## 1
Amino acid sequence: MALLVAFILLMAGFLDSLTMASINNDFSFTLYKELVLKNPDKNIIFSPLSISVALAILSLRASSNTLEEILEGLKFSLTETSELDIHWSFGHLFHMLSQPGDQVKISIGSIMFIKKHLDILAEFKEKARVLYQAEASVTDFQQPHEAKKLINDYVSQQTQGKIKEVISHLDESSLVVLVNYIYFKGKWKTSYNPRDTFKVPMMNIEDLTTPYFWDEDLFCAVVELKYRGNASALFILPDEGRMQQVEASLQPETLRKRKDSLRPSMIDELYIPKFSISSDYNIEGIPQQLGIREVFSTQADLSRTTGAKDLRVSQVMMVHNVVLDVDETGTEAAAATGVRALGSALISNPMKVIFSSVFLMIVSDTNIQTPLFMAKVTNPKGN
C-alpha cells in the first residue's frame, strides 16, 4: 500500500505558488468575514492555514458529495484541479514551510489520535503521512480525561507552551481526533527600542525605510514590516470609520494590488501597539457558511476512514485556538485546530504613522505568499 500511494503521488502535480496563494487568500478572507460577523467589535485572531489544512486532511476521509463540499469550501475548483493535485499542492506548501532557516521559526504539523482497536484504512493513514506529515497515535478514549491531557500536552509542547488547551472536552464516543498546529516566531528586521515604548504601550521607531502604500480609494495606509528571514507582517491601517469598507474589499486581487503598489518609503515616526491577544473559537457553523455542511450531518460519507459510512464530525469539537504576541523584538504566534469523528493612520509631513484605533495584521511566509496568521486588533489589551 505504501509503495502504491508513493507511486500515485509521484504521478501527481501541484498548483503553481501564485494560484495556490490566491486560493488560500480567498479562503482566508472569506473565513475572516465570517468571524467578524460572529464577533463584532472584538479582536479577531486566527490561522487560516491551520484551519484549511485540518479541513484538507479531513477531506482525505471523505467521499462523494461530502468530499466535494469540503474542497469547494476551501475555494478549490474540482473542474479545474483534481483532488490529488489539491493534496499534492498542500504537500508542496508544507515542504516550502519546512525549509531549514535560522532567522524565522515556523513549525507546522498534524497528528491523528485514533481510538484503540479502530480499524483505520491503511491508504488513509499513508496519504495523511506522506502528504501532510500527519502522525498517528493510538489513544484510549475510554479514559477521556487522560486522552484529553495527552492531546493538550502534545499541542502545548509543539507550540512552545503558547497553546495549552486545544481540547476542553472528550467523551468515550470519540473515534478520531485530528489536530493541526502551527507555531511562528520571527524577529523584526529593524527592531524597536524598548525605551521608546510608552505606557499605552506604543512601540516607536524613527527614520524607518520600509515598503509603504497609501490607498486613495479606501483611505487606508498599508505598511509592510519585514522579519529577519522569509516572513513579513502586512499592516492595514484605515482612516477612522473606514474599516468596514476595507473589510468588504478583502479579495485576493485587492491584496495583490496593494502588495504590488508597495514602495520603499521613509517613515519618520512609526507607532505600533505592543500587544498580546488570544482567541479560542468553537467554529461551529462557520464551515457550513462556506458550504461545508454534509460532513456535520447524518448524511456524511467518511468511508475512506474505516470503510464504514456511519461516521460524522461533531460540530462541538471543531475548535481553533490562537495566541499572537507582538513586542519590540518581533512576533510570536501559535494556533491549533482540532476536529473530531489602534488602525487609524495619521500621516503628515514629515511622515508619521500611528496605530491609534482598529487595524489589520497579516503574517505571511514570503516563499508561499500565504497568510499564516490574520488579526483584527480592536483592543490591544485584549477583548
## 2
Amino acid sequence: MRFLPLVAALSMPVVAFLTMRGAFGPDTGTVSDRYPTLLAAAGYAFAIWGLIFLLDIAYGGWQLTRDRRPRRERIAPFATAGFVLTAAWMPVFSMGWFVAAWAIIVAALACLLYCAIALSQVRRAWPGQAVFAWLPLSLHAGWLSLAAFLNTAQLIVAHGWLSTAVQLPWSLALLGGAAALLLLANLAMRGNIPYVAAAVWGLVALYVKQSASPLDGARITAIAALLLALVLLVQCTWLRWTRDVPPLGVKA
C-alpha cells in the first residue's frame, strides 16, 4: 500500500488537466467568475497549484522508497486522503455541487493540516523529511487554509444564503475566521515558513483582486487581507527567531 501516496499525488494534476479541458463542465475559473465575492483572489495566485502538485509527487516518490517507520506510517494515510480529496474537489466544483465541494475542501484541509502540524512537532527528523515531507505538505495545507474560506464565500453567494449586494460584513467575518486558523496553526507549528508563504501568496492575490474590484466594500477587504498577510509574516518571523531549531522546521 506504500504506492498509494504517489498514485494519489499523480491524480491531482491529471484531474486538473481534465478539468481545464472541460471534461466535467466549465473550468473552475469560469465557475468562480459566475459568483463574484469579496474573497476572490487574482487569477495568477492559482499557479501555486503547479508547485504544490510537483512537491506532492516528490513526497509520494520519497515515501515509496523509504523504510517503514511508525510516525511516517501514521502521516501517509492522511496525506493520501488529502491528495484524493483535493483531486475530487475540482470536478465537483466544476459541476456546480458547491456544498459537496465545500465539504471536500474542508476535509482535505483537515487531513493536510494534521500532517503539517505533526511533521512540525517531531523531535527527530527522518532523512529527507524537511524537503520531501514537511515542505510539500505544509505548502499544501497553507494554501487550503485560505482557499477553504474563499470557497465558503462562493458557496454563500451561489446559494444566496447571505446578502450578495452587501457582502462586506460577512466577508470580513470569514476573513477573521481565516486569520484565526492561520495564526493558531502557525503558532502550533512554531513558525512554519512554507505554510505561511502559501497563505501570504493567496492574501496578496486577494488584495490585488479586490483593489480593482467594483464590488461595494472591496477596498476595505483588500486592506484587511494585506494586513493579515503582514501579521502572519511578523508572527512567523518572531516564532522562528525565538525557537531553537534548524531553519527547515525539524530538529535533527
## 3
Amino acid sequence: MLHTFRYTHPFELESGGALPGFELAYTTAGRLNAARDNAVWICHALTGNAQPQEWWAGLVGPGKLLDPARHFIVCANALGGCYGSTGPLSVHPKTHTPWYHSFPELTNRDMVRAFQLLQKHLDIPRIGLLMGGSLGGQHALEWAVEQPRSVARLVVLASNAWHSPWGIAFNESQRMAIEADVTWQLNSKKAGLQGLKVARTLGVLSYRTYEIYQQRQAEQDPDQLGRYRASAYQQYQGHKLAERFNAYTYYRFSQAMDSHHVGRGRGGAQQALAGVTAKTLAVGIDSDLLFPLQEQEYLVQHIPQARLEVISSLYGHDGFLVEAAPIAAAIQGYFPDFTGVAQAQTEVKV
C-alpha cells in the first residue's frame, strides 16, 4: 500500500533555493520489531518507484532474502519523482498549476535529506540494512556518509563515490535528446516525450552489453534487410518508458545523479568515506560499462568495514536488477545475522 509523508515546512535545497514543503510517496512491508533494529530501507534507481517487490522481485517479498516476516521494509519515491512524490508535475501551492520547468534542480543530498525526514517520521532510530543500486546506491552511500550513526549495514550495488565524467556525458547526451524535442519548451505533461524516448534508448545502451544484444537481438536470417530486431527493441524501450514516466523527472533525476560526490564540502571522497561506520558490502557487475568495477573497488579501499563482491553477468549495469540469486547470496553471506535463511529467485525483465 502506498503511503504519503507530508513535510509542511520550507525545505532548503543545496543550491540555495527551497521548496515550500513536499510529499514523499512510500511503501512499507512487515513490522518494526520491539528493538526497532530490523528496518530495511531500499533506495530505487533512476526510473524506479516505491514498489521494490515489482522491480526486485527476486530479493524482496515473502520467502525471499528481504522478507516482511522478518524485516520492516521501507522504500520511498525520491523527491522530484513521478510516482506520488512531489515533482515537476505536482501542483505548486501558490500558483495552483504544475511546476513544470520551474521545478528546482535537486542534488542527491537534497533527496537523501528528504528520506531522513521520513525516517524520523517513521521513528526508525537506526536502519538495519540500507541498500540501493545505481542512483539508489548513490543515495544509500550519501546517507551513510551524512548520518553514519543512523545506518548499521550498507549495500551499495553498481554505484560510486562520485559520478564520473563518463556517466555525466551519457546523462548530458540524454538531456540533449530531450531538449531537441520541439515540445520540450511547452508547459505540458507530455512535453519532451519524443525526446525522452531517444534518451531512454541511449541509456539502455549504457546499461547493457554487446554480448546481450548479440544473444537477444541478432538476426537469425542472414538475408534480412530492414525491420531488424535490435531496431525494434530500441523503439520498444523508448515507448515503454514514455508511457510510464515524464521528461521533467528524467531530466532532474539525471542532473541529481551528476551532482553526486560524497567528498563535496567534506575534504574529499577519501575523508568522507573514512567516516562511514556501517558494515558495508559493495557489489559490482563485471560487465558494467557505466559504473565499472574500479568504482566499487575504490569504495572498498576507503570505507573501514567493507567487502567487494563481483557478480558475473552478461547484462552489464542492469545486472544489479537481474542477477538476484548471486546478489542475495552475497548479502546473505556478509550479513547472516540480519538476513536469516532465505533463497532469492532470479527474475529477468528485458
